Design the sequence.
């Protein structure tokens, strides 16, 4: 009786699937745009300008420091100018220095500190000042930051998720009662 063998899928060529990139060389035409700062390869033309995410002013590329590294050895530029980056660094340093001891749980979602990289607590503060707000996990801190760190934006998201304002108010009361019960 002949032995039935399983087909080795690694020996065959992949079948054509619409949009696949198997065996095709990736095109990186935009990678040809770079310049050198001394011996450092930097993305963009030397005469280009970029808008700072901090002060919203437009500067030459020399006003920005290098950030991450691209596959071809060229460096990306940071989104904030050197001056704004220095102010942000000083602000964070002051916050960490003046913050109370790290809490055991996130002040927002109450997940335990340090279970994984997303629950590692971060010092949250009012941007543009040295006012400490509390210890938040990375998910909560990033989520609120992406909503602009404003109550209006968070309430707008709540209204988007739940169109019934009575239900939003009821949930808000329930959450606030739980939070105040923990602090007493």
Sequence:
């Amino acid at each position: 009786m002949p032995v039935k063998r399983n087909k080795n899928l690694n020996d065959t060529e992949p079948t054509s699937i619409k949009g696949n990139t198997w065996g095709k060389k990736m095109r990186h035409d935009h990678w040809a745009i770079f310049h050198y700062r001394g011996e450092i390869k930097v993305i963009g033309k030397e005469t280009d300008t970029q808008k700072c995410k901090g002060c919203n002013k437009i500067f030459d590329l020399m006003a920005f420091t290098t950030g991450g590294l691209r596959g071809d050895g060229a460096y990306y530029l940071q989104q904030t100018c050197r001056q704004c980056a220095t102010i942000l660094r000083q602000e964070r340093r002051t916050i960490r220095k003046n913050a109370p001891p790290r809490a055991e749980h996130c002040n927002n979602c109450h997940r335990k500190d340090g279970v994984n990289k997303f629950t590692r607590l971060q010092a949250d503060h009012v941007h543009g000042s040295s006012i400490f707000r509390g210890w938040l996990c990375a998910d909560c801190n990033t989520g609120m930051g992406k909503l602009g760190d404003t109550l209006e934006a968070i309430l707008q998201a709540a209204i988007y998720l739940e169109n019934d304002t009575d239900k939003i108010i009821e949930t808000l009361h329930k959450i606030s009662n739980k939070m105040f019960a923990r602090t007493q």
